Amino acid sequence: MSAIIVALAGMVVFALGYRFYSKFVAEKIFRLDPNYVTPAHRYKDGVDFVPTNKFVLWGHHFTSVAGAAPILGPAIAVYWGWLPALLWVVLGTVFAAGVHDFGTLVLSVRNKGQSVGTLANKLIGQRAKILFLFIILILVLMVNAVFAWVISNLFIKFPASVFPVFIQIPLAIWIGTAVYKRQKKMLVPSLVALAVMYIAAVVSSKVSFLQIDLVKYMGGAEGAGLFGLGAVSSAFFIWIIILMVYVYFASTLPVWRLLQPRDFINSHQLVVGLGILYLGLLFANPTITAPMTNATSDVSWFPLLFITIACGAISGFHGLVSSGTSSKQLNKETDARFVGYLGAVGEGILALVSIVAVITFFPNKDAFLATYSSFGAANGSGLTVFVQGASKLATSLHIPADIATTIVSIIVISFAATTLDTSVRLMRYIIAELGMEYKMPKLAKKHVATSVAVLSSAALVLLPQGPNGFGSGGYLLWPLFGTANQLLAGISLLLIAVWLKRLGRNYLVAIIPMIFLLFMTLLAMFKQVLFEWSWFGSNSNWLLFIFGAIIFVFAIWIILTAISALSSNQKISVDEE
């Protein structure tokens, strides 16, 4: 089958979903008001509450939620065949992710820009709020560890990407200063910055001394490295330290100085990258060589498919971004549909091209099955196969293979870095909120909370675990990241449903995807915690077992509390702050 047919079918469904379903939700369910004074205006402080053009905010929001997850999850899930992955990405985006991302944004805007964790207190009670905040805290900690692990490994595998990625930082700061203080427009400078990045990508692909290969500097793969760790582990350690220093400053600077302009640049990367890949798809017209379904899989797709693909179908982390940062920057309430729902569609488009790149990369079905020989092999190969497959599509446009590989790796790393520093900023908010809750005002201070977030994230990602040894903590957390992420999404949909019910509105748009998601996720989590990660499981792992058991118990507690709130007859007449 031609991959163009699959891609075109997915794009048509996404377009119909945004054109009709999101409009119905905006007008009939959420009833957006263009005259509502948003928190960005009401609490404008120039740091977190900053009224922002909807196109700029969409860029910030999308690149914050995207990261590497909508690429990695689908690239792993095609192990069960491309059809199940495709259906979950397309239908999950339209009916679950769009409502979730859009809904958490509107809910936060209507409640002083507060996060979903804080809003749990108002909607389902104080105890649920504390439990929810702890689940969110564990999730963002895992996000920090997973994405720091991903970025560090991509820097090691693709050293030509380092220079173009880091040159983006001073360019973004220059743009942010020019736009905010001199009232300049952001579009042209951001396009210039993107051009500089890609020129740097071309040059670094061809000039060896611009390729920052820390493994080589440590004496090659067989070198002793630092403290006898070995060259690869030493390179990994150095990159983690550099990343943690970067995210400390990135997450404490005002959003207009670095995050917004850098994310706007990355939104152009999305357009350029997807343009290259879809044009490459059009010109190459590749045939799908992967199986539609994989009858030889060693692990059942049910219910693991629905937690393996989180970002790209639905992700609880998106609700944290919507209610944690984006709601504080929304200029008009009616912009929420464009930012929230279309942001989810953008993720779906990225997940779709990830599927296409992987299932057309291999010369035949046997080659695919050799690489995806087991679910564990799929976990280890997914991201690398995507970079190679996407590069193959790009070469059909006569882009040299080394430059294509560098550009694709830059896009993946840029998105992952955006998610990383947004996640650290969110973790700082949560730590500060818990500090105030438990009468520890010092913990609520910005730099203290950020230090706790950064140090705990570094400790987790560098944790030696299992046969992979030093620095494998981030990778080993990936299975739990998916389950925790989907639990958070389900609970957020439950909060939206409670809010809508109390307003006397139709809450089925939230409750139906919530029931489906919570059933699949709780089932998957129960099986993993009890039958895989515990002491009598098939793959005993105490790190995953402890984190998983805590999250599972907290989630059940919150759900029971929320169901009680949902069944009550409490009403609110107007949705005002």
TrEMBL record:
Membrane topology according to the record: Multi-pass membrane protein
Pfam families the record matches: CstA
Membrane-spanning ranges: 85-109, 130-152, 158-179, 191-212, 224-249, 270-288, 300-321, 341-362, 403-426, 447-464, 476-500, 507-530, 542-563
UniProt KW rRNA-binding keyword: no
Keyword Nucleotidyltransferase applies: no
Keyword terms of this UniProt record: Cell membrane, Membrane, Transmembrane, Transmembrane helix
Subcellular location: Cell membrane
InterPro entries (alphabetical): CstA, CstA_N
Record-given protein name: Carbon starvation protein A
Native source species: Sporosarcina saromensis
Lineage: Bacteria, Bacillati, Bacillota, Bacilli, Bacillales
